Automatic annotation (TrEMBL):
Keywords: GTPase activation, Metal-binding, Repeat, Zinc, Zinc-finger. The keyword DNA-binding does not apply. SUPFAM superfamilies: C2 domain (Calcium/lipid-binding domain, CaLB), GTPase activation domain, GAP. InterPro entries: C2_dom, C2_domain_sf, PH-like_dom_sf, Ras_GTPase, RasGAP_CS, RasGAP_dom, Rho_GTPase_activation_prot, Znf_Btk_motif. This is RAS p21 protein activator 4. Residues 1-105, 116-232 form the C2 domain. Residues 732-749 have a biased composition (Low complexity). One of its GO terms (molecular function) is GTPase activator activity. The keyword Zinc applies. Pfam families: BTK, C2, RasGAP. Residues 732-756 are annotated as: Disordered.
């Protein structure tokens, strides 16, 4: 049994940001921090005061987190990036919005006295003295303090204040992990109401000292407890909010949703999982049609989440293909017009989208990666719409002449034809590279559609059914927004975005089998028609080979893949090597790393293209280490240089780490290991929300049974799967009520600490 918390974050856009560059514009990007730990960095949007990001993230984090903060920064090439402003959402703020916080939030000024981080280790006790009780405060150590100096560290000391008296520790130079082990005593007056304040400061020789945070204690409660020891989170200065002036720093549009789940032991979910799996195995001929009822009672807003959770659940049970096949049959059963097939946001469409991202992301990178890289590297001006053509000068120095509109259109058509031909060629060569489970799923889809629309006039419908997912819902979105599919680390500029959009339109026309309706929408795409027509033939040949996979071949391919641990993360990293003292004696070497659930390996050359940002590597390492019994609880963030650790200045090389390992904040990726219990819990929560609708449906079905329509199972025995589902939901509800986690607070409350 465990408490799980997750944040769904969508950073939409900003508006009315202040200009930070001399050009009167800014180059904004966002950094997201959970309790001062940076976890996300968006792409930079160049030269704009109203940036659009549209980036989505799923973050798993401990239930004890306090706040998530969004910092809008201005990127500078030659100097330190400027801070524009921030939006901070506390856990309490998110908890009062069960459907999530959504809307515009004003950016506030970043006050140094509010930007605190870290914890301080204190021992507090009330001891008897010759003239009465005394208050003893032992300042032991601190960790993860904010670096305030240019050398990336601080010179911290602690100031303890009580009853008008102030005492200070010694100064620890150049450390964010200081150890003091100093003790202070104060006379404790009878009935005193003043609080004990422990403040951390960064000492500066020339300028004023920088505030690092504080902890405030209720002395009356301390007298009752007599003794208290532990790590206390440093709090900001609450007076800084009163001093801060209001300014127009612009706004940030966010969508943030907090989900807290209590995950029960696996055995509690087995009845629910077994019931759903039995329904999938029985298929469309099953008596209860539970999957159809779930789709019927699921609203459009949460259909994507439900589809993803169901898909991951059945992937863990080895029934993903059977689940999707059942959805295909349900959709085909209620579709009369071939041209509307899989065009709506049905459970089948949403589940198939999630399936391709989970099972086919590496395949997509292999096919599209080189094409996208070429578009970004060339940065050519491409335009086919005559109403949007920008005529520019061409030629060598002194011989400039205006380029005609016809020349621009012809060069653009040539560029797009080359990109489209290269993409189609790569796709046609990728049959064997496509995952076996994806091929088998497309085979089922192809067969089901051909059985439903067997006439000659619907000859292309099975092909269009496959391309509606592969091209229209997978490849085309990745071409238009490569950053969101981890194909690039940055968003495309305006020129490259237009090229990608036109290329995606061409791919859509090929995926639609060059129908007259698709040609009529944008007549100016006509110059690409010869390549599109060739592409249709190539694509049909590719799909014919793609779905030509037999059961034995599928099993052999899956068995071969199962022997290889799938990569959790791969990409280039720079290794720092020090050959001696001085800045000229160090070097960096670029190696390509691959992290699986079994090992971390590297090579001199890359095997595939992937994002390599630091926080994603840290997140991947945390995921594969989460079940490691040898995982340390602490570590040294510095290096042992000379005779001491650079972080905490301890001289024992084998000394325990001065900072705690942070293994519980991770970014969710499509290739994450499956968490079967969590998916089952999320499905249970959804079904619990639609339980009234399910009960109403059960009453209708029961009335029909009394009238003579009896539901029977494979053996002819009467069955009531919906009634069984409702009973399972009731049993799970009772299990949650009886679980200790439902009655315990997520974090032990300290009576001594005043929340600021």
């Amino acid at each position: 049994m465990a408490k799980r918390s997750s944040l769904s974050i969508r950073i939409v856009e900003g508006k009315n940001l202040p200009a930070k560059d001399i050009t009167g514009s800014s180059d904004p990007y966002c950094i997201v921090k959970v309790d001062n730990e940076p976890i996300i960095r968006t792409a930079t949007v160049w030269k704009t005061l109203c940036p659009f990001w549209g980036e989505e993230y799923q973050v798993h984090l401990p239930p004890t987190f306090h706040a998530v903060a969004f910092y809008v920064m201005d990127e500078d090439a030659l100097s330190r990036d400027d801070v524009i402003g921030k939006v901070c959402l506390t856990r309490d703020t998110l908890a009062v919005h069960p459907k999530g916080f959504s809307g515009w939030a004003h950016l506030t000024e970043v006050d140094p006295d509010e930007e605190v981080q870290g914890e301080i280790h204190l021992q507090l006790e009330v001891v008897p003295g010759p003239r009465g009780c005394r208050l003893r405060c032992s300042v032991l150590e601190a960790r993860d303090l904010a670096p305030k100096d240019r050398n990336g560290a601080s010179d911290p000391f602690v100031r303890v204040r009580y009853s008008g008296r102030t005492q200070e520790t010694s100064i620890v130079k150049k450390s964010c992990y200081p150890r003091w082990n100093e003790m202070f005593e104060f006379e404790l007056e009878e009935g005193a109401t003043e609080a004990l304040c422990v403040e951390a400061w960064d000492w500066d020789l020339v300028s004023r000292n920088d505030f690092l945070g504080k902890v405030v204690f209720n002395v009356q409660k301390l007298c009752a407890a007599r003794k208290e020891e532990g790590w206390f989170r440093l709090q900001p200065d609450d007076q800084s909010k009163k001093r801060r002036g209001e300014g127009n720093l612009g706004s940030l549009q966010l969508e943030v949703r907090l989900r807290d789940e209590t995950v029960l032991p696996s055995g509690c979910y087995q009845p629910l999982v077994q019931l759903l799996c039995r329904e999938v195995k029985l298929g469309a001929q099953g008596p209860g049609q539970l999957i159809a009822l779930i789709e019927e009672t699921t609203s459009t807003e949460c259909r994507q989440d439900v589809a993803t959770n169901l898909l991951k659940l059945f992937l863990g049970q080895g029934l993903a293909r059977d689940f999707l096949d059942l959805l295909f049959q349900l959709e085909l059963g209620r579709t009369s017009e071939a041209n509307t097939l899989f065009r709506s946001n049905s459970l089948a469409s949403k589940s198939m989208e999630s399936f391709l991202k989970v099972a086919g992301m590496r395949y997509l990178h292999g096919v599209l990666g080189p094409i996208i890289d070429r578009v970004f590297e060339e940065k050519k001006y491409v335009e086919l719409d005559p109403s949007k053509v920008e005529v520019k000068d061409v030629g060598c120095s002194g011989l400039h002449r205006p380029q005609t509109e016809a020349e621009v259109l012809e060069q653009s058509a040539q560029t797009l034809r080359a990109h489209l031909a290269a993409l189609l060629s790569a796709l046609c060569r990728s049959v064997r590279a496509c995952p076996a489970v994806v091929r088998a799923t497309f085979r089922q889809l192809f067969r089901r559609v051909r059985e439903r629309f067997p006439s000659a006039q619907h000859e292309n419908v099975p092909f269009i059914a496959v391309t509606s997912f592969l091209c229209l819902r997978f490849f085309s979105p990745a071409i238009m927004a490569p950053k969101l599919f981890h194909l690039r680390e940055r968003h495309a500029d305006a020129r490259t975005s237009r090229t990608l959009l036109l290329l995606a339109k061409a791919v859509q026309n090929v995926g639609n089998m060059d129908t007259p309706a698709s040609r009529a929408k944008e007549a100016w795409m006509e110059p690409l028609q010869p390549t599109v027509r060739q592409g249709v033939a190539l694509l049909k040949d590719f799909i014919t080979k793609l779905v030509d996979i037999e059961e034995k071949e599928e099993l052999d391919l899956q068995r071969a893949l199962s022997l290889q641990a799938p990569p959790v993360k791969e990409g280039p990293l720079f290794i720092h090597r020090t050959k001696g003292k001085g800045p000229l004696m160090s070097s960096f070497k670029k190696l390509h790393f691959s992290l699986t659930t079994e090992a971390l390996s590297f090579a001199k050359t890359p095997n595939s293209k992937c994002v390599n940002e630091l926080n994603q590597w840290l997140s991947a390492l945390r995921k594969v280490s989460i079940s490691n019994p040898g995982l340390l609880g602490s570590y040294h963030p510095g290096v042992f240089r000379g005779d001491k650790w650079s972080c905490c200045h301890q001289k024992d090389k084998s000394d325990l780490g001065c900072d705690k390992t942070r293994s519980r904040v991770t970014l969710q990726e499509w290739n994450d290991p499956l968490d079967h219990d969590l998916e089952a819990q999320l499905i249970y929560q959804h079904l619990l929300g639609v339980e009234p609708a399910l009960r109403e449906k059960h009453r209708e079905l029961s009335a029909g049974t009394e009238a003579g329509s009896v539901l029977t199972g494979p053996g002819g025995a009467p069955e009531d799967p919906l009634g069984q589902l409702l009973q399972v939901l009731q049993d799970l509800q009772e299990a949650h009520r009886a679980s200790p986690a439902s009655s315990q607070p997520s974090e032990p409350s300290r009576l001594l600490e005043l929340q600021t």
